Amino acid sequence: MYLRYFGLNEAPFSITPDPAFVFLSPRHRDALAHLMYGIGKGGSGGFVQLTGEVGTGKTTLCRCLLEQIPEGTQIALLLNPLVTPRELLAAVSEELGIDVSASIDSTRLLVDGLNRYLLAAHERGERVVVVIDEAQNLSIEALEQVRLLTNLETSKEKLLQIVLLGQPELRDLLQRRTLRQLAQRITARYHLSPLGPKETHLYVRHRMQVAGAQRNPFRRSAMNALYQRSQGIPRLINIIADRSLIAAFAKERMDVTSAMVHEAANEVQLGERQVKRVRWPLLLGATAVVAVAVLAVASFSGFQLPSDSDGKESESAVMQVADEPETEVASLPQPVPESLPEPIQPAMVEALDKDWLEGHQQVVWQGLAEIWRQPGAGFAIQAACNEDDSLGYACLRDQGNWLKINRLGLPVILVLQNGSASYLLLQGVDDDRLLVGAPGQLTTVSRESVESSWLGSYLVVWPQAAGWPSFVGRGDTGPAVATIMEMASLVDVPYHGDRVFDAAFELWLKDFQARNGLETDGIVGRNTLLHLMTASIQEPKLLRTWE
Predict the structure, then answer these.
(1) How far is residue 318's CA from residue 402's CA, in Å, rounded to a whole number?
(2) What's the average model confidence in pLDDT over 492-508?
(3) Are 334 and 384 in contact (CB under 8 A)?
(4) C-alpha 50 chain-centroid distance
(5) DSSP labels, 209-220
(6) pLDDT digit string, tens, across residues 58-101
(7) 20 to 30 A from 539, CA-CA: which of 82, 91, 162, 349?
(8) DSSP secondary structure string for all residues of 445-484
(9) What was the pLDDT predicted at 349?
(10) 61 near 192, Cβ under 8 Å?
(11) 456 — alpha (psi -120 to 50), left (phi > 0) or beta?
(12) Are residues 139 and 36 part of one domain?
C-alpha cells in the first residue's frame, strides 16, 4: 500500500528469501564460505554444521549455496527432517532421482541403492552432498542413520558429504554422548549470529535501495530503535520495518521515526499499541529471592546515570532516541495482594481454552510478580516489557523453542498469535504438557494446543537495579565487574581466573556466549547477563515435573 508513496518498485521488507535482496554481512560471508568448504573437497566426507537463531538467515544462505554449487556436484536438499530413518533414506534417494519403488520398505535395499548411485557418481567425477535444513528436529535414530551414510566410501575417500543447518539446539543435541561418533566427524562448524548495529543500518539501506528508493526514510534513531527491538535478527527487522513504513504512510509522514518503530514492534512482539517512555538501553532493578550474585545485580548502585539536564548523551548508551518527544506509559495500575495465594492442584485440560486465556490477560503481569515473590511489582514488570526501565525490572524479548526455554530454566511469558497477540504465563514444561497460568489459577494443557498459535516469541523478566550499566566489557572495573565474576564462577563451565575483566576473561566469555547461542562479542549486555545469571537464581525455576 505504501510503494508509490515512497517511490518503491516492490516491497523492500518481504520475509520471503528473494535472492535479489540478499545482504551478506561479514558473518554471512564467513558462513557461506564454510558451506562452500563443506561441499568442496575440503569437507573430506565429514559433516559441516551451520547453526543460528531463528530468522538469522540460514535458509537464505542455503539458497545462495544452491546458486553457487561447483560444477559436477549433486545436491539432495531435505527441508523436513521430522522423518524416520527409513523415510530419511527414501527422501535422500528421491532427491537424487533414485527409483525407490521396489525398496521403499527395506532399509538395506535403500542403502544399497544409494551406495550404487554414489559409486557411479564417483566414477563420473561428481560429488554428492546432502543438505539438511532444520536439522535440530532430527531424531537420535535419524542422526545415527545419517552418520552411517558417511561410511559409504571407496578405499581412498568418502562418497557422501553432509551439511547440517539448524538452530542452536542442534549443538546441544550433538553434544550427547550417544552421538559422539557423529560429533567427531564434523570437520567445520560455524554459528551465525545476528547483525550488529552498523550491519542493521546497512541492511535497511540495502533493501530500500534494491526496492528502488531514492532516499532512506528511516531516521538514524529509527534504525537504532529497529536494531534494539529486532536484536539484529533479519526476519524481525523485515517485519518491524514493513509495519513502520505502513505507519509512516498512514500518518502521511515521509520519514520513519523511532516512535513508529517502537509502535510497530509492539504490534509484532507484544500485540499492543501502548504509548511508552523509551529509555534504551538502561537496565532495571528490584530485589527477589535469588542467590548472592543476582542480589548484587538487583541492588547494584555503583553506576551513576548522567542527568537529563547536562545536555550530553551517555557514552554507555549506544542507542539513544533523540528526535521524538517522550510520553508517559499508558497502562492500568496493578493490585497489590496482602499475601501470596496458596498453590492449588492444577487442572488438566486437553486444549487451551479461549475464555480462560482472555481472563488470564488481566492477571499475567501480577502473576509473574507473585512468582518472583514481589506481589506489588506487577506494574513494574509490565512497564519493563514496554521499555520503561525505571521501576526495578529488566525484560528481554527473545525467539526460540521449548528446548531453549528449558535451557533458560525460568518462567516466561509466551506471546501467542490468535488474530491478535495475547500472553500466556508459562511455569512448567515436560514432554508433552505445559503448566500455565498465574498462582491460584494454574492449568495443565497439551503442548500441541499452544504450538498452533505460538511462533516462538517470549518474554523473560528478572529484577535488576536501575544503575546497572548497559554494557560491561574488557577493561571495566567496579561493582558490576565483581558481580559478573561471581556469576561466572557458578555456571556449568565456570571461570576460575583473576577477578578482573581482562583478555583472559574476555576469551572465556566469548566461549560462554558461543555455547549459549549468543553473539560472541566478549561484552556483557542484557542477553549475556541473563544467561550468566540463570545459574545463580535459586527461585523461581521453570518446573520440569508437577502434579
Answers:
(1) 32
(2) 91
(3) no
(4) 15
(5) HHTT-SS--B-H
(6) 888 888 888 888 788 888 999 888 888 899 999 999 999 999 88
(7) 349
(8) EEHHHHHTTEEEEEEEEEE--TT--S-B-TT--SHHHHHH
(9) 53
(10) yes
(11) left
(12) yes
